[in-house]
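Q: Structure tokens for this one, please.
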Amino acid sequence: MSGCPRVGLSGVCLVITALTLSVFATAGTAAEDASKIGEALEAARKKGEIAVVSLSKQMLTDEEGGAGYDCSQWQLTAADVKSFFRRATVIDEELLHLSYYTLPCNYLGSIRMAGKVYTFEINGGAYGTLGTAAQGASMLYGCKQACARVFPAIYDDEK
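A: Here is the predicted structure, written as tokens:
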């Protein structure tokens, strides 16, 4: 006997099963895509092939949750972005929430590695993401002590 209800609802069970399989397949694909991003960054680090294509600052307004922190003094250059991604390590969501500040200051942009363009976002709290726009996959990176020069506001407070 199948796990589907009787009397004309077997089509519903089939749809639910197909959706469930689709969700698992998508999750696996996102993990695989994220893993490829990590591999691409490692290869680019070894070869010194990280080039910043675009870079722009984004500050949240008070209405968007940016109240209480002045981001105007924090500046990132293309060299800082390259330095961040050369030194950063992969972190997970739990470590992000336990060990990193989230500030209303971000830099968004794109970098080229091995001929492919990836999008990034770096938060003033010393963490960032690197991903692909096409697949929507991304990896989370943190860089505290090794990047202290890039995030002086964070480390001035912790001394």
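A few notes: DSSP finds five helices and six strands in the chain. Helices lie at 10-47, 62-66, 78-87, 93-99, 152-158.
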